[in-house]
Amino acid sequence: MNQLSKTEQVLKEMRQYLIDILVLSETRWTGNGLEKFSDGYVMAYSGHPSVHRAGVGLLMSPLAHKAMTNWNPVNERIMTARFVSNHTKMTIIACYAPTNEADEEEKDAFYNMLHSVTKDVPRHDVLCVVGDLNAKVGADRQYCPEVLGPHGMGEINENGTLLIDYALSNDLIIGGSMFDHKTIHKYTWICGNCSGDYEVGRQCISLDCPVMYKRKSFEVGLKDAKLFFYILEDL
What angle do CA 59, 46, 163 make, to 5 degrees? Predict the structure, then answer.
């Protein structure tokens, strides 16, 4: 999404669905900074210094931007932002994990940094870790009931194991597994040559789940986790 015109399309959807904060993964923007758009919308972004690869961003409505107190562009795969209102303090970690086929060193580096960033979040903040985590956590809740809900899907992969370990060690839950939705509202990616049968094609399906602290009340903190599909051409 390294074209500003594409960002304007996303902003149009934000306005339509009344979204105040939207995390973007694989933006492919270089460097880091704040980009201002029409109507007071702002994007904080963090990317590679010179190469158009990876990248994460946080699009904010004027209201959300006003509530943001600070942000930290960690690297091309991780950034954080903190928001303060009259009722609560919230930190969002936006991330873009390496694919399941990536080198072990790359995966380890990502999760080591993610662990470090998470540990620095103020203890009493509501924490949301959101982004393209390139993971399948599977449908077997008994694998890790402290982290997984009853509505996971498919079979766990290596990245799913890494994600669950990260969530468990940081007192997080995987929000996408907590709520009962139609299959199409649980998966975020299907390979182009899949038949459309989710069971047959599940090895080509990716579930990229937001996670959230259990320190705050789960019922109050996370009302739902549901996917909506929107396609931009030639991102």
Answer: 90
